[in-house]
Amino acid sequence: MLEAHHLLQEEKLESLGMARKPKLHYFNGRGRMESIRWLLAAAGVEFEEELFETREEFEKRIQEGILMYEQVPMVEIDGMNLVETGAILRYLAAKYDLYGRNLQEQAWIDMYVEGLKDLSDMIMFFPLSLPGEKKMNLEYILERATTRFFPVYEKALRDHEQDFLVGDQLSWADTQLLEVILMAEECKPSVLAGFPLLQEFKARISYIPTIRKFLQPGSQRKPPLDEGSIETVKNIFKFERGMFLKNMGTIVAEY
Ligand SMILES: N[C@@H](CCC(=O)N[C@@H](CS)C(=O)NCC(=O)O)C(=O)O
């Protein structure tokens, strides 16, 4: 009842062009929130961030009861406290017209973004590798990127003959692909060497004004984890032991 009332209020405000900016709750880093930032930025939607730096600040939000599973990311939007990264991304993609023109296009977008998520999860968790496994994990990630994932998108662009992965307009699949390309290049700058169409895609999509703005210094895009921020993240979320990569591209966390 209360939720419905909130929604109505938000819709009224939106129709008056007065919708509140979405508010993102997360720690001050990329993590699972970064794709959400990318999607909003690409859609040209301004957002606010409540970034916490300590375990206490995170627990305060848990105690407030605003995190359904006592986890972040959480996005306050349209009268809801939205959680679960996939649910948030799908809601935003649909709301801001980045989710294709029909169910088929939506299914293609899902296939691309789910694969991209497997790759970006590996890269996201890589800094948490056990010290003795870093080299092996990096080699594994680069091998997966260049032999399993990038060939799929290179072929998709060749076969589809459009500027975008799906249909004839920008979608969540494109923002996710560009985000992951840039993450992989941070691991190895020449990672796109064998993928000419991905190189063109990167240049083309980076040139879209909203995205170009997001890529410039001073935007809400976050830097990769450095040694200091790894410690902060470990303390906030109580990562105690470490992570390891299993054979088939699945990440298993041990903590
Ligand atoms: N399935 C959730 C997982 C969220 C998740 O694991 N969040 C981490 C931070 S990135 C967290 O809040 N961990 C604290 C905990 O699980 O207690 C999603 O995709 O959003």
Automatic annotation (TrEMBL):
Q: Which domain of life is it from?
A: Eukaryota
Q: What is its EC number?
A: 2.5.1.18
Is Isomerase one of the keywords?
A: no
**Keyword hit for Translocase:** no
Cross-referenced InterPro entries? Glutathione-S-Trfase_C-like, Glutathione-S-Trfase_C_sf, Glutathione_S-Trfase, Glutathione_S-Trfase_N, GST_alpha, GST_C, GST_superfamily, Thioredoxin-like_sf
- GO molecular function terms noted in the UniProt entry: glutathione transferase activity
What residues does the GST C-terminal domain cover? 102-225
Q: Any one Gene Ontology biological process term?
A: xenobiotic metabolic process
**Domain GST N-terminal: from-to ranges:** 20-100
Concerning Pfam families, the annotation shows: GST_C_3, GST_N
Keyword tags? Transferase
Q: Which enzyme type, at the first EC level?
A: transferase
- The family this protein is said to belong to: Belongs to the GST superfamily. Alpha family.
Please identify the protein, giving its name as recorded.
Answer: glutathione transferase
Which organism is the protein's source?
Leptonychotes weddellii (Weddell seal)
**Mind giving the lineage of the organism this protein is from?**
Eukaryota, Metazoa, Chordata, Craniata, Vertebrata
